[in-house]
Amino acid sequence: MKDLIQTIRNIFSISELRDRILYTLMLLLVFRLGSFIILPGIDSSILQDSFNSSRTAGGGVLDFFNIFLGGAFARGSIFALGIMPYISASIVVQLLGAVVPSIQKLRQEGDSGTKKLNQITRYLSIIIGLAQSASYVGYLKGQYPQAITDSSFFIFTTVFLMTAGIMFLVWLGERITDNGIGNGTSLIIAIGIVSGFLPALYSEFQANKPMVFFIEVILLAIVTMAVIALTQATRRIPINYARQMMGNRQTSISKEVGMEDAARQYIPLKMNSSGVMPIIFAQTLVMVPTYLLGLFDNSYLSAVGGAFNDQTGLAYNLFLVLLIVVFTYFYTAIAVNPNEIADQLKRTGGFVPGIKPGKNTADYIDSILNKITLPGSLSLALVAVLPAIAMICGVSGNFSKFFGGTTILIMIGVVLDTLQQIESYLLNRHYDGLMKTGRVKGRERTGAIAS
Question: Domain 203-244+259-451 belongs to what architecture?
Answer without folding.
Answer: Orthogonal Bundle (1.10)
